[in-house]
Amino acid sequence: MSRLNLKSLTTPPPRLRIGPFREDAFQSRLRDKRLASILGIALGVSFSICFVTGVLSHLIQHPPSWFVWPSRPAGLYRITQGLHIATGLASIPLLFGKLWTVYPRLWTWPPIRNLAHLVERVALLPLVAGSVFLLLTGVGNIALWYPWGFFFPAGHNWAAWVTMGALIVHVGAKASIVRRELTGSGLDVVDVPGEGLTRRSFLGVLAATSGLITITTVGQTFRPLNFAAILAPRRPDVGPQGFPVNKTAAGAGVVDIARDASYRLAVEGRVSSPLSLSLDDLRALPQHEATLPIACVEGWSAEARWRGVRVVDLLDRAGAVAGAKILVESMQPQGLYKQSELNPSHAGDRDTLLALEVNGEALHIDHGFPVRLIGPNRPGVMQTKWVDRLVVT
Ligand SMILES: Nc1nc2c(c(=O)[nH]1)N[C@H]1C(S)=C(S)[C@@H](COP(=O)(O)O)O[C@H]1N2
Ligand SMILES: [Mo]
Which end of the chain has a smaller Cβ tally under 10 Å, C or N? Predict the structure, then answer.
């Protein structure tokens, strides 16, 4: 093929050589395959950790029949969800850097070379849109800011599967380029000669930005960095009785019923002798203490010393069928989180309590007075407050 022909195949016709199609439209020497490969690997790792921990959190809250989340180790969910939020936040600068590096390639000529190229390019739409959507809605959610009309967990989960599908196509299409770019000289960031920011500095700025975001937020769950958590939406040590509240008693509409002296805890369903216990009855039962964290899905966690009645003791007393699932219901009249489920592992754990006290005081009403559920290795959203009924199912 003559030089002329080759040129006419890889550049647009003259009348289209405008805007981003101009030959000199993108001049930065930074936008090369090597930088794109390094950022691609970093994002691949952070997105994968974020995806696996996110799917895990979803399975724990909506368990299909084949999935059983154990009650031990007690702090495992605190770690997996901490990682979910931390990797998501750290991905933000990396994604911006990656999009800046590769977007000139949107204007390559010819737009479509063959079927594989078409598939690869079509997959970019869900990949880029999905990634931006996931990081934006994630940040919105941890800031309790919902400027959208859909239910966050469902939309976020659905987008994650689409994005990861597109990511697999993308990795398949780019694997050989990445291998070529990064083998031989390994991961060493050799710079192309010329002026302006070097590749090494550009990566350094992105890494530093990700690191700064991590250091100023991860203290919301990682205690040693608590002092630096200036960007965390929640301070784990700020709130009544020294830890945060997501849903207040007023917000849940339970202020009056929670304080009503005629309070009774019912234990019913598949039991031989249903129970109806007043607060004094509960206080008269054997009390047990456990130090357990509230690990909110939004990424903050706070440990406290809880004291109350073991759920397993109440189930024994009521003669509940063995190995059953337990529905934990609150007095809250409506809302998605007014009840939660205890699988047999959680129901049978000796540290799963109906707590009456925290850190040596009666529960604050915003922490669930008169009675709240607290158990090891559960998402915060399943630590139901203002409990008035256990149903053995
Ligand atoms: N009844 C009820 N219990 C609830 C909630 C709720 O909205 N209603 N929110 C949950 C969430 S999302 C969290 S993180 C924890 C927070 O507990 P705390 O306010 O004691 O820190 O309570 C959980 N228990
Ligand atoms: Mo939560």
Answer: N
